[in-house]
Amino acid sequence: MDARKNKFYNDTLTIAKDWNYNCELENLAPLEMEYHDILADLYGLKGDLENAVRYARMSLDGWGRFGSVDYGQLENARRTFMRLWSEQEAKNEKLRG
User: Fold this and answer.
1) What SS3 string covers the chain?
2) Structure confidence by residue, pLDDT tens digits, 16-70
3) Residue 4 falls within a domain, yes or no?
4) C-alpha of 2 from chain center
5) pTM of the complete model
6) In the chain, at which end, N or C, are there fewer CB atoms within 10 A of the end residue's CB?
7) Would you say residue 27 lies in a domain?
8) Which domain holds residue 63?
9) Rounded to the nearest 5 degrees, what angle is found at the Cα of 65, between the Cα atoms of 57 and 80?
10) Which superkingdom heads the taxonomic lineage of this protein's source (predicted)?
11) Residue 81: inside a domain, yes or no?
12) Does residue 2 sit within a domain?
């Protein structure tokens, strides 16, 4: 993804949110989970762990609920969620002191 290499996170987040909104309108649930994956990744790269965890959880819930051709997406969503959640917890613990 060029946005990752060039760090165009804000522009890419805006585009991915628009795609996600259109998926919701058209009731395209499988695509929605993929966009949640993308949003979680981009928010994580941007350092916004609160939103990264939020979208990772939405992706994980969606893959668990709707399934996929194989379990790869569900396992990837689970790993992503756990990684981001752990990072957020470490950051919160550091802030608490």
Assistant:
1) CHHHHHCCHHHHHHHHHHHHHHHHHHCCHHHHHHHHHHHHHHHHHHCCHHHHHHHHHHHHHHHHHHCCCCCHHHHHHHHHHHHHHHHHHHHHHHHHC
2) 778 778 777 887 665 778 888 888 998 999 999 999 999 999 999 988 888 777 7
3) no
4) 17
5) 0.73
6) C
7) yes
8) 9-96
9) 30
10) Eukaryota
11) yes
12) no
